[in-house]
Amino acid sequence: MITPSDMPSEPPDTLTDPRELLTGYLDYYRSALLRKLEGFPEDRLRAAVLPSGWTPLELFKHLTYVEIRWLQWGFMAEDVGDPWGDRGPGGRPENPWKVGEDETLDGLKALAAETWERSRRIVASASLDEAAKPGERFQDEPASLIWILFHLLQEYARHLGHLDVVRELADGAVGE
Questions:
Q1: How far apart are alpha carbons 67 and 60 in whole angstroms?
Q2: Which of 49, 61, 138, 164 fits a disulfide with 132 by CB distance 3.0 to 4.6 angstroms?
Q3: Which has the closest alpha carbon to 30: 102, 120, 132?
Q4: Burial class (CB in 10 A: 0-12, 13-18, 19+), 30
Q5: What's the farthest any 2 CA atoms get from each other in the chain?
Q6: Nearest to 87 by CA among 118, 69, 61, 108
Q7: 151 domain-assigned
Q8: Is 15 within a domain?
Q9: Which residue range is the domain that position 73 belongs to?
């Protein structure tokens, strides 16, 4: 089981290596996600407090599937089964995020830990300027690994800001 203490803090401001900076911040945002979910009661994890209707548990699952879509299904062109597994009926991208009644925070943490480790291996095995392999996600103009990593960082940063607001509204906890 992963915990926030298992994950690193923000990379040092003296870091200049692009790969270390990108992967360091990705791990930092993953850690921040776990910290923001820590201490949330189960009923609050499944409750929407914003008009858009998503829950903290759905956001967590969504960010895990974002990595699956961009690195496994996208960059590596792997068959991942359902790359839209964080979505509602039929897993369609236009459907809202969904978490099944049988899915738990611990189960989603296990999926995230597995996904994050797979992502680390993918990134370690490729150059930053390498283009994604042709597949279902990228057929004509594949994205580069560095672009994908920047995209993942902005996804995490944006959604962690959303989660800060939800957490403060739900129980008064203020994010760091």
A1: 11
A2: 138
A3: 120
A4: buried
A5: 47
A6: 61
A7: yes
A8: no
A9: 4-8+21-171
Query: Residue 101 — φ and ψ, nearest 5°?
Result: -55, -35
Asked whether residue 95 is assigned to any structural domain, the reply reads yes
> Is position 176 within any domain?
no
Per the structure, how many domains does the chain have?
A: 1
Backbone angles phi, psi at 24, to 5 degrees: -65, -45
List of E strands, 58-154:
none
Task: Extract the residue ranges of the chain whose pLDDT is less than 50.
Answer: none
Looking up tokens 């820590």, which residue turns up? 38
* pLDDT tens column, 155-176: 999 999 999 999 999 888 886 6
DSSP letter at 91?
Answer: G
Q: What's the confidence (pLDDT) of residue 74?
A: 95
The reply to whether the predicted model has a pTM over 0.70 is: yes
Give the per-residue pLDDT at 58: 96
Residue 41, pLDDT score: 85
Positive or negative, the CA dihedral 118, 56, 33, 143 is positive
According to the model, what pLDDT value does residue 2 have? Answer: 53
State both tokens at 73. 């299904």
Specify the pLDDT at position 176: 63
Which CATH number is 76's domain given? Answer: 1.20.120.450
